[in-house]
Design goal:
- It is a single chain.
- This protein is α/β, with parallel strands linked by helices.
- It has one domain (5-169).
- Helix content is 31%, strand content 24%.
- The longest helix has 28 residues, at 61-88.
- The two termini are 34 Å apart.
């Protein structure tokens, strides 16, 4: 059985726009670490820029963030499938042959409509945007698990290992920013 999670996406008005369900590796050291890898250091902008540095370090609104986050997760799931296939290669009865395209790796993550809850999740990640001026909007993250808030702050300040330690130590919320 996997560690299930949901990721809730909210716009600057706090309106929920989508929910992403992850069937396995949903703990802060799994999904949380990948979330930070995909979102940290980036800003939300309003408009498309041609400068490659700006494009690679920003999202053109919450809709762009959601789409690119899903693509990033699917790519990582596929990379993990390739590693698993390589490990299993040569074992008796092994038939796992992953597809060469990350978009062809089925399952693992699923898109649900806004408001979806109680899908078996152990962890809930809420991604929201701060109200800021043009070019200054930042990405906020709240992580909850096992009836506790494990982190609440800017995604750049999220430490997956510290969130796991908070879960098991009983020290309370890891709140930074």
């Amino acid at each position: 059985m996997g560690t299930r999670s949901i990721t809730i996406f909210k716009d600057t008005d706090g309106e929920e726009i989508a929910v992403l369900y992850r069937h396995f590796d949903g703990c802060p050291s799994g999904h949380g670490a990948q979330l930070k890898e995909l979102l940290a250091g980036r800003k939300i902008i309003n408009g498309i820029f041609t400068n490659a540095a700006v494009k690679n370090q920003s999202f053109n609104g919450i809709g762009d963030l959601v789409v690119r986050f899903i693509v990033g997760l699917k790519t990582r799931l596929h990379e993990n499938a390739l590693i698993t296939a390589e490990i299993l290669k040569g074992m008796p009865g092994h038939r796992l042959e992953p597809s060469p395209s990350s978009q062809e790796t089925p399952g693992g993550i699923y898109l649900y409509p806004a408001g979806a809850r109680d899908i078996g999740e152990e962890y809930t990640y809420t991604i929201s945007l701060t109200n800021g001026t043009y070019g200054e909007t930042k990405i906020k993250l709240k992580v909850e698990g096992h009836d506790r808030v494990l982190f609440d702050g800017l995604v750049d300040n999220f430490d997956p290992e510290r969130a796991m330690a908070t879960l098991y130590s009983g020290d309370g919320v890891h709140d930074e920013g």
